[in-house]
Each structure stands twice: as C-alpha cells, then as structure tokens.
Automatic annotation (TrEMBL):
Coiled coil: none
Native species: Planococcus kocurii
SMART domains: CBS
InterPro entries attached to this UniProt entry: CBS_dom, CBS_dom_sf, Diverse_CBS-Domain
Keywords of this entry: CBS domain
Pfam families per record: CBS
All copies of domain CBS, residue ranges: 7-63, 71-128
Entry protein name: CBS domain-containing protein
PANTHER family: CBS DOMAIN-CONTAINING PROTEIN, CBS DOMAIN-CONTAINING PROTEIN CBSX3, MITOCHONDRIAL
Length: 138
C-alpha cells in the first residue's frame, strides 16, 4: 500500500513570520502536534508542540517572536510513492512522529504514527519496529 492512500491531504501550514502564539493557536484549533512552515508554498521547516515548549517557552522566546526562530529547518520528508513500510522505516530511522509528504518542495500531505495506527496498517513488522524505534530513548 502506498502512503498516498492514507496520508492527510488537507495540511494546514504557517509562514516563517507567523508568531509562536499564532502557530500554537493554530495547532490547538485544528488539533495537531506539528505545523509545516512554508514560504511561497515551499516547505522551509516544521514546528512541533514540543519545539514551542522546549525551544520557545523554556528559552523565554517571546510569544510574538517569529516561528522561524525555533523551527526545525532540516525536515525529513517523503513522497507519495513511498510504501507504508518505507515511510515507517524512514520515521523510525530518524525518530520522527510525523512525515511531511512533498512534491517539488511543496507539502501535499502528512503522515503521523497515529495515521498508521488509525488505518490499521501496523500489522506489518516494519511498522511495529518503527513505533518501537521511535519510542526508544537514546
């Protein structure tokens, strides 16, 4: 099965100049734990709820600071042609919970571990290993 069959396609994004407060509010509004950050439609980073707490609040970054101050610029991405097993392996190898799916540097979808679980695709050994490896503390 291809990842494009289970990915979420209505992906909300924010701009690098969006504030920490705006991004956190957007996360709450749409009930997600991460937001891709895009400039002119191109993926330039990603921010998680954990980033806002650890890199923002704990470092006393003001709520009105641009999200570009705390985003993760090196984003691991996948393509719509990945199999579910390949996506799970990629997520495990990089210990990430969410995988933006891109085409020509534009976000066309996103897959989370929850998506894999909700679609009942965790029956494969690859996906089970992904969850175990992502959850391990180094």
């Amino acid at each position: 099965m291809k990842i494009e069959e289970i990915m979420t396609v209505d992906v909300e994004t924010c701009k690098p100049e969006s504030t920490l407060q705006e991004v956190a509010s957007k996360m709450r509004e749409i009930n997600v734990g991460s937001i891709p950050i895009c400039q002119e439609g191109r993926l330039v980073g990603i921010v998680t709820d954990r980033d806002i707490v650890i890199r923002g609040m704990a470092e006393q970054i003001p709520n009105d600071a641009p999200i570009s101050e705390i985003l993760s610029a090196e984003v691991i991405t996948g393509t719509a042609k990945l199999t579910i097993e390949e996506a799970a392996e990629l997520m495990a190898a990089h210990k990430i919970h969410r995988l933006p799916i891109v085409a020509d540097e534009h976000v066309i979808g996103i897959v989370s571990l929850c998506d894999l679980a909700a679609k009942d695709v965790l029956k494969t050994q690859h996906a089970e290993n992904a969850i175990v490896n992502i959850s391990k503390i180094d």
